[in-house]
Specification:
The protein is mainly β and 289 residues long. The protein has strands spanning 18-23, 32-38, 41-46, 58-63, 69-76, 83-85, 88-93, 96-101, 107-112, 121-128, 131-136, 141-146, 152-155, 165-171, 176-181, 192-196, 204-206, 214-219, 224-229, 235-243, 249-251, 257-258, 264-265, 271-275, 280-286. Strands 18, 19, 20, 21 and 22 form a 5-stranded antiparallel β-sheet that branches. Strands 1-25-24-23 form a 4-stranded antiparallel β-sheet, with no helix packed on it. A 4-stranded antiparallel β-sheet has the order 2-3-4-5, with no helix packed on it. This is SMP-30/Gluconolactonase/LRE-like region domain-containing protein.
Length: 289
Amino acid sequence: MKTIYLLIPLLTAAGTGFGQMQQLNRTAMKAPESVCIHGSDYYISDTGGDPTKKDGDGILYKMNSNGDVTVFASGLDSPKGTWVLHNILYTPDVDKIKGFDLSTGKQVFTLDMAATGSVLLNDIAPMNDSTVFVSATDINKVYIVHLGAQPRYEELVFDNPVKGANGVIYDNKRQRLYVCGFGANGTPNGEIGYVDLAQKNRKFVRLTERTGYYDGIALSKHNTLLISDWVAFEKKGVVLEVDLKTGKTTTVNKEPISGPADFTLNKQGDVVTPAMMEGNVLLLAKGTK
């Protein structure tokens, strides 16, 4: 990955290990939901608006380190989470998982999950190089998806379902799937916690009593989780750092974000997040504590 060129400063240094926030894209998008990094490029999903509607206005963008945005693939419905495995960009799209060849932009994978009853398949994260986890926000479930020539899926069954299951990330060392929820019934009652996959009787264990409209999730190198919380459907969003041992939660940005959705971390540990409601992608640079 090349050095990321920082554009358009928005604020001065924050006080919890993160510094300036920058806008990365030169051209605004409509509703960027997720971003992942592969090499020196960013791949960004744009729902086009309605997150559950099959209207063909969903787009996958490719953005270089200078902030130039081009269409990588079009004609999707409402793509959300993004992840690259074996040179294929996978994304949940309403009730399907789709995969696109990074070299050509052509769709090379489809798994129909309509039988689950979900129309809001959301985040995606790998368990290994042939298996991913996919959240289904509208039905409060998480699925294990087996990729390959004969793809299949199964529900990850556990007690204490996550309200509006959204962000997922797997910790192979601890054999834990960390999950955060967007909440249910339009209220910010989403939770942050994990499912221990090593246990026979699995359950969702909360890490903190704090609730919110949680969306993106990532593991840092410092025994913490980073979580995005919309807070409200206006410019009030935050990125939180949660200590995995104590559950202590700290807000790492001072300037609010308009819809901090499914973010990623670059190799420096900086947060790269969509500001979904304003159509931009922002970088929250990591400083020194």
